[in-house]
Amino acid sequence: MAKILLVEDHEEIWDFLSRRLKRRGYEVILAHDGEAGVRQARSGQPDVILLDMNLPVLDGWSVARTLKSGTDTRAIPIIALTAHAMSGDRDKAIQAGCDDYHPKPVDFSKLLSQISAALGETAQAG
User: Fold this and answer.
1) Distance between CA 126 and CA 122 in Å, rounded?
2) Mind listing the UniProt keywords for this protein, alphabetically (predicted)?
3) Do residues 43 and 76 touch, judged by C-beta distance below 8 A?
4) What is the pLDDT of residue 85?
5) Distance of alpha carbon 33 from alpha carbon 51, whole angstroms
6) CB 31 within 8 A of CB 81
7) How far apart are CA 115 and CA 48, in angstroms?
8) Where would I find the H helices in 25-88?
9) Mean pLDDT by 10 residues, the chain (126 residues)
10) With the CA atoms of 89, 51, 2 and 12 taken in that order, what torsion angle do they form, in degrees rounded to the nearest 10?
11) By 3-state DSSP, what share of the chain in percent is helix, strand and coil, each rounded to 5?
């Protein structure tokens, strides 16, 4: 099954999401700040990254730009997870390098659809 890197600093959210994703058969790697997220993405080579945009140490926008500029990580789909649901926030996340956007609170069934869509391109290529 696919490997998902969840970069999230709020325990309730990463606990909820990681447990539900594991129940669906996904392997979940956790990082609790942006810098750790970049390291985990490079070492773990996940199939999809769920990236909170408000992170300590290095924010999500910087993480997305860093990963999309790296030859070893640029092809990994990134789904932004953010409480920023104002007009223009989706565009800001996409411009930073995220491939998709999911506003909080998390709608788990919609997020699963977005993960499937992100994996679909990878699965078809393989």
Assistant:
1) 6
2) DNA-binding, Phosphoprotein, Transcription, Transcription regulation, Two-component regulatory system
3) no
4) 67
5) 10
6) no
7) 7
8) 34-44, 60-69
9) 96 96 97 98 98 95 97 97 80 94 94 95 43
10) -110
11) 50, 20, 35
Cα 8 from Cα 79, distance rounded (Å): 12
Place of tokens 């080579």: 45
Show the DSSP H helices in the chain as ranges. 11-23, 34-44, 60-69, 89-96, 108-125
Give CA–CA dist 55/62, Å, rounded. Answer: 10
What is the topology classification, in CATH, of domain 46-119? Answer: Rossmann fold (3.40.50)
Of 76, 89, 79, the residue nearest 122 (C-alpha): 76
Strands 100-103 and 48-52, bridge-based pairing: unpaired
Residue ranges per structural domain of the chain = 46-119
